[in-house]
Amino acid sequence: MPEFLELLPPTRALSYWLNFIPQSLKETERLAVVDALGRVAARPIFSPEPLPAFPRSSVDGYAVRAADTFGASESLPAYLMVKGELPMGTTPPFDLQPGEAALIHTGGMLPKGSDAVVMLEYTQPSRENEIEVLRAVAEGENVLKPGEDVKQGEEVVAAGVRLRPPEIGGLMGLGILELDVLRRPRVGVLSTGDEVVPPEAAVQPGQVRDINSYSLSALVEQAGGIAQRYGIFPDQAAALEAGLRKALDECDAVLITAGSSASTRDLTAEVINRMGKPGVLVHGLNIRPGKPTILAVCDGKPVIGLPGNPVSALVIAYLFVQPALNRLCGVPGLIHPAIRAKLTVNLPSQAGREDYYPAKLVQKNNAWQADPIFYKSNLIFSLSRADGLIHIPEDATGLAAGEEADVYLLGRG
C-alpha cells in the first residue's frame, strides 16, 4: 500500500480547506421566529422598542423611595405607610409620596415616585397599613430599568448568528414575529464499498449494514444542514463518479464514506479530482482516528472523503463537517463546547499526532473526571456510550492519570 504524501496537522488542514469554501450561501427565506430555532439570521435585527419598556420589580417586596430607607437596620428600622398593592399587568393606580410604600410582585410596574424595591424578607408589619424596613436599599436596587436589557434601535441579533432559545424568546418579547434566515445547506451523503448493504437487508457472510449514511446524515441535520442520502456505491470508479456528479449538481457539499485510504482499490481521491477545481487539497491527517481523510473543494463546493469505520467517520465529521457547514451558513468560527476533566487512566499518544478518545464523564468531588472508552474504530456503540472526546494535542506524548485534558462534548440534543 502506498503511503500518504503528506500528513497535515488537523488545525492547519482545516484552516487551509476552509479558505477555499464560500463564506455563506446567499439565498434567504422568510420564517416565523417560532420556527427558526437553529437557523442563521440573514441580516441584523434591531429592537423596535426598549426592553423592558417600563421600570419593573425583579423581586417580591415593597416599592419605595430609596431615600426613605437610608440608615434602616434591624435595630433601627424605617417605618413606611403601605398605600396599597400594585396590580399586575396594568399601570399603577397611584403614585408614591415620601414616607409611603406599595406591595409589589416580581415583574410589576413601579409607581411614579418610587425608585427601588425592598425585598419582602427585609420587611415586617408593625401595625395596620405600616411596615418596618430592616435594611436600606439604594436607588435602582431590585429594579429593571427601561431599556436595561436592550435599548430602542439597538442591534439584538447580528447577521450570521445561529438562533438559540434566548434569541427566539427575546425576539418574541420585542414583538418580532418573522425574520429572514439563510437557506440551509444541502449535503449529499454517499456510502461506498462492495461489502456495504442497506439497513433493511438480511446480511450475508462478509457483508455489513450501512451505518455511516445514517449517522452522518443525523450529524448534518444537527449541525444545521439538510442531508440527502444517495445510496451505496460499489468500488468502481464509474459508479462513484456518476453518483458524486449527481450529488454535486444537487447539493452544496458532499460527504463520501470509505474509499479514502491510499490503497489501489480506493478510488475516491481520483474521482474527486475529476469533479472540479481545485480538487483534493488534503489527503491524510496527523490524527487518530481518521488518518486517511480527504478534504477537497470542487468548483466552490466542499467534498470530504471520510474513513469507512463508523467511529472514525463520525469523529472526523464532528471536527470538519460542522465547521464547513458553519462557513456555508455564514456563521463566523466554530465553538466546540468543551470542559476540563481529569483522566482516570493513562492515555498513550504519539508526538506530532492529535488523538481523540471517546470518554464517559463523571462528576466526583465537584470536579469532572473523564473515563476513556477504549474501542476499535468500527464499533459504533463505543461512541454512543461516550459523552465527549478527550483531545490529546500533537505536542504531547500521552497524558497521565490525574492530568487534566480538554473534553469536547458530544451533543445529545
From TrEMBL:
Protein's name in the database: Molybdopterin molybdenumtransferase
Organism in which the protein naturally occurs: Bellilinea caldifistulae
Pathways involved: Cofactor biosynthesis; molybdopterin biosynthesis
Reactions accelerated catalytically: adenylyl-molybdopterin + molybdate = Mo-molybdopterin + AMP + H(+)
Ranges in a coiled coil: none
Family membership: Belongs to the MoeA family.
A Pfam family that the UniProt record links to this protein: MoeA_N
The protein's required cofactors: Mg(2+)
GO molecular function: metal ion binding; molybdopterin molybdotransferase activity
Function field: Catalyzes the insertion of molybdate into adenylated molybdopterin with the concomitant release of AMP.
Key words of the record: Magnesium, Metal-binding, Molybdenum, Molybdenum cofactor biosynthesis, Transferase
GO biological process, one term: Mo-molybdopterin cofactor biosynthetic process
GO cellular component terms given for this protein: cytosol
